Amino acid sequence: MSSHQIHHPSDCVSNRYKIIYFIGEGGMQQVYYAEDLALKREVALKVPKNMSAEKRFKRSAVVSARVNHPNVAKTLDYLEDGGNLYLIEEFISGQDLKEGVIQKLQVVDPYLTAKIFHYLAKGIAASHRAGVIHRDLKPSNIMVSGSFNLTEIKITDFGIAKMAEEEISNAVKDGESTMSNSSTAVGALPYMAPEMIQESKRAGKTSDIWSLGAMMYELISGEKPFGIGWGSVLNILNAAPPSKPTYFDNQLQFQPLGNQLYELILLCLKKNPEERPTAEQLVQQCEKLCYPVVDRKEGIVDEYPRGDWGIIKSNDGRKIFFHLDSVYGEKPQLGSKVCFSEFPGSPYNRAHPVVLMQ
């Protein structure tokens, strides 16, 4: 256990929240898995790492508590104890979008991307209706459960977004050296709207829409729309539309939905904030998308009897047929790990879509 941790297992905060284990930390806070002894439930306990973060912690907690929606992590409590401030959120058993999806799949197919897009748009719309702007939307602030089935998709860390905005603003203003030393700024930059880079106080609801579009482009293409690091700043400020991913143009089965998603993404990434859709409008557009919600499974490409089709051996040992027309992304090789949905077929069930795992 590292010495920098503020709490250790069995510590009890305010005689109510028993620390079970350390989950991790970001630029602004540490997060712990804890038990609410009063209500016998699991919670995420968040504590700021330094005094600069503490300044806005209470105000941010009050703001985030306004939002009540299935796609937003619920703020349950705020308290002060032993000289520290604490934010208590519902505990989401899973991983963030970066760890749980982006780092596990080479690229995300349009079906799964459409589901994530739809659910996040609903969560953002609920927060905007409550007058709450996130300001720091990025994959590490999206929690997902159920592996690739994504049984839960929730936006988190509304409570520290305003504080993150200040650190990001200072890093951008001070230049590349400061930017590279700020983990918060480095992680946020690829998803920052042009107006946030120019002047963070201009960040509004439309800045959240930009961030959503940037995340969705990364999912469906496997690349960040404007690059990474300090070098992406000029690209973001120019806001030249990112190129259409080639994967769904090369595979006709993915083309209709892929084109619809790309059009929505480009709307989100309009340089002029006034030209971007509202979150409510995005929800309405996502409701028109036709995407299946079918369980995802994992397996290994076990046979290639012919060049255009093969057999996946699923994790439960069964043989599943697939055709290269159903592959989104690069062609898997013998022994490649893949993620897929399964449909009835003979002599073997058929996999569609098939996506290469990292």
TrEMBL record:
InterPro entries: Atg1-like (IPR045269), Kinase-like_dom_sf (IPR011009), Prot_kinase_dom (IPR000719), Ser/Thr_kinase_AS (IPR008271)
Keyword tags: ATP-binding, Kinase, Nucleotide-binding, Transferase
Domain of life the protein comes from: Bacteria
Molecular function GO labels: ATP binding; protein serine/threonine kinase activity
Keyword Transferase: yes
Any one cellular-component term (Gene Ontology): autophagosome
Keyword match Oxidoreductase: no
Domain Protein kinase: 17-294
Protein's UniProt name: Protein kinase
Protein source organism: Planktothrix agardhii
